[in-house]
Amino acid sequence: MSAPGPMSKTTALLAALVLAVAAAASAQAPPAAPAEGAAPAPADPASTDIKNPVDQELQPDPSGYNYNPQGRRDPFVSLLKPVSADQGVKTRRPGMEGFLIQEVALKGIVRTPKGYTAMLLGTDGKSYFVQEGQRLFDGVVTRIDATAVTFRQEITDPLSTVKSRDVKKTLYPSEEARQ
């Protein structure tokens, strides 16, 4: 046998090119029509209605884009805005129910026959008397004793696993620093 020359390399390359074009053309050819005498196969309605779940997710929504979070948070919702789990952004009510726990200052505690009542100073410069169970914007008063008021603050951070925490305000700020 003789060594392959430039002509045999060109011929082999040309044959490979022809085979590649033929394979591509056969892959794009429309399916053959059924014979005229053969009846079309009956369509099973159950098989046409059931689709692969992956195919359903991959098909675009005809009305436009639809975000499916699949248990993840929405990346377009700001983490800086406080969001309640059931209402979205809340509007503040007038009076004590409109103040955040961090906005009020404990100014006094009064003992009454029914228990203790705390006097809180709001950001509007007015004093408010509160009792256990009184609602604030982001929490509720849970306990009042002779020297401190305890609040249950609702956490609105969507990334936090804890939904509430206890905040204690004392009459004497030096005691707050020790705790």
Q: Could you explain how this protein is built, in words?
A:
- It is a single chain.
- This protein is α+β, with helices and mostly antiparallel strands.
- It has a domain at 100-178: Roll (SH3 type barrels).
- 22% of the residues lie in helices and 23% in strands.
- The chain contains four helices and seven strands; from the N terminus they run H-H-H-E-E-E-E-E-E-E-H.
- It has helices spanning 6-28, 45-49, 53-58, 173-178, and strands spanning 105-112, 115-121, 127-130, 135-136, 139-144, 148-154, 164-170.
- It has a four-stranded antiparallel β-sheet with strand order 4-5-6-7. The chain has a three-stranded antiparallel β-sheet with strand order 1-2-3, with no helix packed on it.
- Strand 4 and strand 5 form a beta hairpin.
- The radius of gyration is 37 Å and the shape is rod-shaped.
- 8% of the residues are buried.
- The model has no long low-confidence stretch (mean pLDDT 76).
Quick description:
The protein has 179 residues and is α+β, with helices and mostly antiparallel strands. It has helices at residues 6-28, 45-49, 53-58, 173-178; strands spanning 105-112, 115-121, 127-130, 135-136, 139-144, 148-154, 164-170.
CATH fold-level topology of the domain at 100-178: SH3 type barrels
Count of DSSP strands: 7
Computed over alpha carbons, the radius of gyration is: 37 Å
Give the proportion of residues in helices: 10-25%
How many helical elements? 4
Percent in strands: 15-25%
Q: Helix- and strand-based class?
A: alpha+beta
- How are the strands ordered across the major sheet? 4-5-6-7
Low-confidence runs: none
Distance between the termini: 97 Å
- Listing every helix as H and every strand as E from the N terminus to the C terminus, the arrangement reads HHHEEEEEEEH
Net shape: rod-shaped
Global mean pLDDT: 76
